[in-house]
Description:
Rossmann fold, about 25% strand, 7-stranded parallel beta sheet, binds flavin-adenine dinucleotide, 5-stranded parallel beta sheet, alpha/beta, globular, 17 strands
Amino acid sequence: MTSDVLVVADHRRGDLRDVSLELLSAGRELADAAGGDLHAAVISGNVESFAEDLDREGVDRIHTVAHGEEFNHDVYAQALTAIAEDLAPEFVVAPNSVNGLDYAPAVATRLDRPYVSDAVGLDYSEGTLEVTREMYGSKVETTVDVAEGPFVVSIRGGEWPPAEGVGDAEVSEFDFEVDEDAVRSKVKGFEEVGGGDVDIADADFLVSIGRGIEEEENLELVEELAEVTGATLSSSRPIVDNGWLPKNRQVGQSGKQVTPDVYLAIGISGAVQHVAGMKGADTIIAVNTDPNAPIFDIADYGVVGDLFDVVPALIEEFGGE
Ligand code: FAD
């Protein structure tokens, strides 16, 4: 076994996801702690451009597997097992994304390694990996000590800074043939769900609406605010439960984790399950009639006021009408 780290790039519908660059930072930290090299693996039909994006400071080698445009469990499990068997890294680090949660346990099983999911912190010293995780909607922080490697972990998006700079990693195609007979599923196409192909996890500016909006018809108001400010619309869970917005817009414990530069929470109380999904935003602004709403405990800026007054004023300010 080497002291190296292998991280696995995440992409969706042709775009590298932000968590891929965060994985490089987490991986570099582990590689420095263990005294090893940082490797990145990318599996896609579009490996050249992804490899270019992944070549950041601190990355030693990038291994590409040119196969298919879309994620496939069996291809990932086969390829990553083969790469890990070849490199024998102390750590395999995957994203805690839908894809990562799909293949990481399978890879760990094939390699006969322990697996810890949803890490928000990693600390490696003297052969023990301490993984920090959150429980009960981020109310409780726990640490899991894994005393003996090699390890497989998946990390939560938004917890590490993205790797920066331009590196000079050695990029090479991994010598590997997919066993097509063992590939049990095939992506035949995509069907749009309502809400379009929007990934709120990638947005820089979210206008997020909660139950304070009262009626579905009133959503037009916040849609207009999102439009004039160039923001993406997201929401708390009741809005999705009511069927007013599709599930891919929901922020929170049972929705998406988001880390925008700005999160504008309108008519959202700030329940722990909601906060679990957005507390990583750089700047949180809240609009709420209730000065004691818990959202103000974590907001950087707050307006105690009626959204039906505040939102039109913001539209006028930013829309210039
Ligand atoms: P409310 O809590 O009803 O708050 C509405 C707020 O709007 C209030 O603070 C009120 O003062 C304010 N308001 C009312 N009128 C106005 C006005 N005119 N102008 C300005 N402000 C106004 N929730 C999520 O969001 N995401 C999740 O992923 C999620 N997962 C969950 C998982 C589990 C297992 C459970 C049990 C719950 C989960 N919830 C989740 C639900 C969560 O507990 C809350 O019920 C929910 O977040 C409340 O949404 P809200 O803030 O929009 O509504």
